[in-house]
Automatic annotation (TrEMBL):
Its EC number is 2.7.11.1. InterPro entries: Kinase-like_dom_sf, Plant_Ser_Thr_Prot_Kinase, Prot_kinase_dom, Protein_kinase_ATP_BS, Ser-Thr/Tyr_kinase_cat_dom, Ser/Thr_kinase_AS. This is non-specific serine/threonine protein kinase. May be involved in plant defense signaling. Its main location: membrane. Keywords: ATP-binding, Cell membrane, Kinase, Membrane, Nucleotide-binding, Serine/threonine-protein kinase, Transferase. It holds the Pfam family PK_Tyr_Ser-Thr. One of its GO terms (molecular function) is ATP binding. PANTHER family: OS01G0588500 PROTEIN-RELATED. It is found in: Cell membrane. It comes from Erythranthe guttata. Residues 107-387 form the Protein kinase domain. Belongs to the protein kinase superfamily. Ser/Thr protein kinase family.
Amino acid sequence: MKETNSKNQQPKWKPMTAGYCCSSDDRAVFGNFSRCRPSKSDFTKNIGGGGGGGTAPLPSFRKLSFSDVSLSVGSSSARINEDLAQTFGGDLYDFQVSEMRAATQNFSSNFLLGEGGFGRVHKGYVDQSLRPGLKAQPVAVKLLDIEGLQGHREWLAEVIVLGQLRHPNLVKLIGYCCEDEERLLVYEFMPRGSLENHLFKRLSISLPWATRLKIAIGAAKGLAFLHDATKPVIYRDFKTSNILLDSDFNAKLSDFGLAKMGPEGSNTHVTTRVMGTYGYAAPEYVSTGHLTTKSDIYSFGVVLLELLTGRRAVEKSRPKNEQNLVDWTYPYLTRTRRLRCIMDPRLGGQYSVKGAKEMGLLAQKCVSLNPKDRPKIPAIIETLESLQNLRDMAITHGQWPDSANSGRNLGYYGKGRRQSGFGCKSAAVAASPRSK
C-alpha cells in the first residue's frame, strides 16, 4: 500500500514479513471448526428451560469457521469479540478504535494510503506500548464501510481467512477491531503499494520484465496455497489492485472479503451470488454462479495479460474492439511477431522474446472459455519459473524497433493505432472468435 503524502514522515521500520504459521509443508491446516453459537432452540433450552428450577450454564464459545460469516450478522460486538478471541487466541490482536486513532494520528489525511468501495486505508505505527510483544512496525489500517450487512460479512470473512492462514505470499493480518458499529483491520504495511499502481499510474516507473515475472510467480504461489489448503479456499477477487508488493517486490495477496470455501466431497462447484470485479470474473461464474478454483485461474490469466500489455482488464476509453483485454489480445498470443504488437511499450523491448511468448500462451490457456482446459496452479508456477533465466531480449533480437524510431513507432499504443513500421498492421488481426 503506497503512501499518497510524504509529510510528517516517521522513522522507517522494516516491514514485518509473513512467515509460516498454522501450516505444514506449505499446506494450510484448518482445525475442525464448528459453529461458534448454538441454535436458537438450543439456546432456549439452556436458559431456564424445562421447568427444572435453576438456570443451565451458557454454552461455551467454540471456534469460528466460514459457515459462521452470516451467523454473526446482528450479533453484538462483545459477542463477536469473544468468538474471535476463542478462535484465534494470541495469533491476532484485538485493538480498540482509540488505539488505532492514536496509531494513525486520528486517521490523518497525511497517512491516507487509499480509498475504495471497502472504505479507507491509513498508514499507522504500532509497538509494544500497545500490546506486550507487539513488534514495532508500520501497519495499514483499513476502516471498512459497513453500510448494510455485506460490509460486516466481508470483514468477518477476512478475519477468518487471514486469521487461520499464514504464507509468505498472503498479506499478514496483525489484528482487528470490532467496537460498536466500527470494523477495522490491521495489516502489515506493504511499502511498494499495489501492482495496479505500478502498471497503470502514469507517473510510476515501469516495472522491468524480471520484476513482472517475479510478481506473477509470487501471486501464483499465494493462490496455490489457498487452493491446496486442507479445505480449499476460492479467492474470488484476484486482480492487480489486490496484489500488494513489499520493499523487494515480493507479491502478497490481500483483501479476502469475497473468499469462499471450495466444494467438498463429491461436489464439483459452489453455487453463490455472483460477486467480484468486471473483467476478471470467469464467464461461467458470471452466467451460472458456479464457483470453482478454475474461476481464480481465469482471473490469474487476465492479470498475466495486464503484465504483458500494461493495459487494464477493461478500458472503456479504448476503441470498441480493444476495450476488453481478453478479447482484444486473444488473436495476438500465439505468434511472436503478433505478440510484440500488444507488448507494453514501457518495457522498451527489454523483455524475453521466448518468455513473453510462453507467458502469452499460458494466459491464453488460463482464460479458456472451458474451465476444464485451464491449467492447474502448480503447472502455472512451473511454467513461469522456467522463464526466469531467459535472456533473449526483444531489443537485441530484432523484435523491437530501434531507439531512434521507438517513440514514433510506439505512438500507436496511446491512440489505439498500430504503425506498420513496427510490423503491426492498423487493421485488427484476423482470427476466428473465441470458442470452447
